Amino acid sequence: MTSILKVRDRTGRFIKGKHCSPRTEFHKGHIPWNKGKEIFYFRGDNNPMKNPEIRRRVAEKNRAITLRMYREHPELKEKIKKATRKAMQRPEVIAKTQKTWFKKGERFSPRTEFKKGNIPWTKGKPRPIKTKGKIRNTLREFYKNNPDQLKKILTFRRPNKTEEMLNSWLRYYFPNHFTFVGDGKVVIEGLNPDWIDCDGSNRIIELFGEPWHRPEEEQTRKNRFAKFGYRTLVIWYEELKDKKSVLEKIQNFIEAS
Predict the structure, then answer these.
(1) Residue of 245, 222, 248, 243 lying closest to 234 (CA atoms)
(2) Residue 5 above 70 pLDDT?
(3) What's the CA angle centered on 44, arms 41 and 49, to 5 degrees?
(4) Eight-state DSSP code of residue 188
(5) Fewer CB near the last or first residue (10 Å), C or N of the chain?
(6) In whole angstroms, what is the distance from residue 154 CA to residue 93 CA?
(7) Which domains are present in the chain?
(8) Are 165 and 180 in contact (CB under 8 A)?
(9) Helical H runs in the chain?
(10) Cβ atoms of 103 and 117 closer than 8 Å
C-alpha cells in the first residue's frame, strides 16, 4: 500500500499544472457540465442489470472485448494468469474463498487438492437435468472416439454386490453361457456391456440401477447394440428381489435366440 501511495504522489507532482489530453483541457474558470447535479444511482427496479437480456448483451460485449484484447496482445493472457495465481495465494483471498466456496471449518488449497474429510460446497446438491445430459453426451462421444481410455478407466473396476449376486446366478443356473465383461474387457461404440455370451450367439445382459439409469435408456442401449447384431436383455435392480422371475426372464431370452 505504501508503494502505491508513493507512486501516486510522484505522478501527481509530475503532472501538476499540465494537461494530459486535449479533450480534457479546461481553461481557468471553466464550469463542468455536471457541477451541482445530483449523482444518479441505478438502484432497485431502476437497475438495468436486472433485465436478463441486458445482462446477456453486456456479457457478450465484455467477452468480445476480452477476446479482441487477447488477440491483439497475446502476452497479456499469460500475465493475467500469473497475477491471478499469485492473488489466490494471498491470505485475505483464501479467507474470503473459504466463506463462499466451502463449508465452515474446511481447508482450502489454491491447487484444489481436497484433503481427507473436506466437503465441497456442491455436495448433496443435485445437478440439473440439463447439466447431467451435457456431461453424459460429452463422455459418450469421448469414449466412442477413444475406446482405449474407457478400457483403461474400467480396468480397476470390480463387480459391485448386486453384479456379483447376478453373476453367481448366471454361473450356477446358466453355465458356459455368459461372462462378466463390465470391467472394460469389451467396448461397443463407446459402451461397456455387463455380460456377453460365451458361445458367439451375440447376446448381452445389462443390469440397470434406478438411481443411475432412466427408463428411456433401456431402448436406446438396445438399439445401439442392435446395430452390431447383438440382442440385449435389461434387468433392473428391483427385479432381483424376485429370483424366480429373473431366472425365467433369462431362460426365455436364451431360448428366443
Answers:
(1) 222
(2) no
(3) 80
(4) B
(5) N
(6) 39
(7) 82-125 (no CATH), 154-255 (3.40.960.10)
(8) no
(9) 2-15, 52-72, 74-87, 91-101, 129-145, 147-154, 161-173, 215-226, 243-255
(10) no
- Give the rounded distance of the alpha carbon of 16 from its chain centre: 53
The CA distance from 93 to 87, in Å, is: 7
179, β-bridge pairs:
196
Name the residue type at position 71: R
Alpha-carbon gap, residue 60 to 218, rounded angstroms: 40
Per-residue DSSP letters for 101-132? Answer: HB-TT----TT--PPTT--BTTTTPPPPHHHH
- Whether residue 170 contacts residue 250, with contact meaning beta carbons closer than 8 Å, is answered with yes
* SS3 of residue 28 by DSSP: coil
**Gap between the Cα atoms of 188 and 231, Å rounded:** 13
* Residue 104's pLDDT band (cuts 50, 70, 90): very low
C-alpha cell at 197: 455370451
Whether residue 114 is predicted with pLDDT greater than 80 in this model: the reply is no
